[in-house]
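User: I'm writing a short report section on ligand binding and want a predicted complex to refer to. Could you take this sequence and zinc ion and write out the structure as tokens? A short remark afterwards would be nice.
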Amino acid sequence: MSESITIQRVVDDLRALGIQPGDTLMLRATLSAVGKLRRGAFVEALLDVVGQQGTVMGLAFTSGVLPWKLQHSEPFTRQTPSYAGALPNALLAHPQALRSAHPQTSFVAIGPHAELLTEGHGPHDGAYEPVRRLIALGGKMALIGCVSSSPGFTTAHLAEADLNLQWRMLPPWLFSQSRYVDENGKVQVFKRRDGGFCSNSYWKFYADYVRHGVLRSGFVGHAYSVLAPAAACYGIEKEILRSNPRFNVCDSPDCFMCNVQRVDRLHHAPYFLLRRLTKRWRKPPTV
Ligand SMILES: [Zn+2]
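Assistant: Sure. The structure tokens for the complex follow:
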């Protein structure tokens, strides 16, 4: 069970990590790793650290469903909860939160740049376009307590899209579609074409972040955390992916994306499917 900590400790730790008043900050976090805090306290601490001139942004992503289940799925609205954990849902619950209208990769933001970051990002726009706006604003990115479980900075997905790597992937809508309510209140179908690649291997970027001196690390509560400027990370990731478009392949033989969905790795598909089948056969009978 996680240990109780104070909001002041979180504020002090966020400052020590390098977050400053006036920052535009995009972050992902595993709040349970930070320590036990009352509901809403982490967002309060973040807003305290960036101050009145600062903006906090999170990934309020939502899942699609298999195409044949689409008709029975709940349409996306700006009230749909995010699957991405406690932090985005805490940000969404804040009375000043603004959320973009993309049916699967909506972003949530609070602060003076919130409108600039989220406005006009809908079903017809690139999935990661708000990240481009974060870069233009000189924003920073933080990972709090999720460095080992989910090491990626979202700038890498924008770099993949800008390098047109997406032809290497079977279209995401083959496996996942959503419904959403448009501006006229009509329910529409969303078929995503620009998926993000598997991010399990994004830890491989870290050596270059360190080499370029852009990564800061520390603890927020009990959570190991990192902070980096978005523009520098985007530049590093883009150069690496340009020279090696398979850099973002993970080593797991059980990864669907890296073994089946990637067109440039389709030759792994028979082995993947065979593993799946034999796993099912080997499952002990349920009593
Ligand atoms: Zn993978």
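A remark for your report: Residues 254 and 276 are 8 Å apart (CA to CA). Residues 252-287 form one domain.
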